[in-house]
Structures are given as structure tokens and as C-alpha cells.
Amino acid sequence: MMATWRGIKRSGRQGERTHLFRQVWVVLCCLAAASYAGSLDVSSELVQWVGKKYGEEARERVVAWKSLMEQNGDESEEAKLKLVNDFFNRLPYHSDWRLWKKEDYWATPIEALGIHGADCEDYSIAKYFTLRELGVDEKKLRIMYVKALELNEPHMVLTYYETPGSVPLVLDNLKKNILSATKRTDLAPVYSFNAEGLWLAKSRGGGKKVGTSKRISLWEELKARLAEEMDK
After folding, report:
1. Residues ≥6 apart with Cβ < 8 Å to 151
2. Can you tell me the distance from the alpha carbon of 226 to that of 206, in angstroms, rounded to the nearest whole number?
3. 42 and 227 in contact (C-beta within 8 Å)?
4. How far is CA 158 from CA 44, 122, 155, 230, in A?
5. pTM score, two decimals?
6. Burial status of residue 156 (CB atoms within 10 A of its CB: 0-12, 13-18, 19 or more)
7. What are the C-alpha distances in Å from 222 to residues 27, 64, 69, 218, 219?
8. What percent of the chain clears pLDDT 70, i.e. is strictly above it?
9. Are strands 169-171 and 153-160 parallel, antiparallel or unpaired?
10. What angle do CA 120, 210, 181 make, to 5 degrees?
């Protein structure tokens, strides 16, 4: 399993691979927005706006998120991973269609907390943003597009690499505990990416970098929503 987590799985139909590649580039576009301001400044005005738009319980969830980021910057990275994973996994899983009446919608953390629901990419993106705000190095975090073998469907998780060559830890909404990739035999990795680039997995090493978020323009919609929220 270690080899496949460091490498691309090239099996499957060409059409499926093409679809997965397109999906990954869409998410990469969204992730590039992570560096739009360098900080998630959850202002009191934003908190009030969330309460008016989504209700009092949503406001309390955003306040709790704000407190998590403000109070845990000095914790160990292991503690940060657990805190963030547990926090967002409390959100119930719902499809994009149920939440947003759209086939695909990449929610900001504020939107996910506000509507009180997420699907797999929303969990992963929210954890990614939050860990970046807590000071975890960008190079240690990648969102990974995988196939959930037991569900027989595409899925997304956040992975954490303590060192460039280490086997990653997997932060996932399907499992409560953070586990080493070698213990996640139910997942088959396909691609990994963050705001710095896109990697094809390969049999050895950390993967071949094949793209950079600076070449992408399709993430403007999410970037605009994030900027608008943070400016409340």
C-alpha cells in the first residue's frame, strides 16, 4: 500500500481517468485561493453576518472555528491535525445537490459551517485552510483524490507529510481517527495537490509535479467568495 500511496494508479477506463483529472484541476483551482490573503481573519462583522444569513447555531459554529484557530497556534502539529480533523468531521455529510442544488459546488469553510453540512471535498478544503492558518507548512499538506474501494466511488481526503519522503497521514471524513496511509487499504490514491501544484502519484518518492496553480484562472469564483466573506 505504501507504493500506491506514493504513486499513480493507471488502471481503469480512459474516460474515467479523464473525468478524474478534470475534477482534480477544478479543485486545484479552488485551492489556489488559499493564498489570496495569507490569513483567515474571522472578524466580528463576519460572525454577525453568518448569524443573520444562516442562524444563531451557525454563528456559534463559526465562533468555535475562530477560537480553534486563535487558541491553538502553539500546539504540536500532531495536536493540530487531531483538533482540526475532529472539528470538521462533526459536520454531517450531505451531497452538493442536497446542500446547494448543484452537481458540484466547492464550499468555503464559512459556507460549510453556515449550512451545517459538507461533502468530501468540503471537509478536505476546510481542514486544509484551517491547518494552514494554524501554521502548518504548505509543503506538508496535500489534498488527495482517491477511489474509495468499499464505496466504489471517487473520494477526497487531506494528507499530511511530516517529511517529503514519509508515508502520509490521512485526514478523512469516512474514518474518525487519523491513520497512516499504509493502514487505509480501502483507499486507492490517484492524484494529490495543494495551492502550489498538482502531482501524479508514482511508485517511488513523493510524486511527479505536473502543474502549478498560477497557471489556473477558474478558481476566481471561490476566491471572490472567500474575499467577500473575509471582508465582512
Report:
1. none
2. 30
3. no
4. 29, 11, 11, 23
5. 0.79
6. buried
7. 10, 23, 21, 9, 6
8. 70
9. antiparallel
10. 45
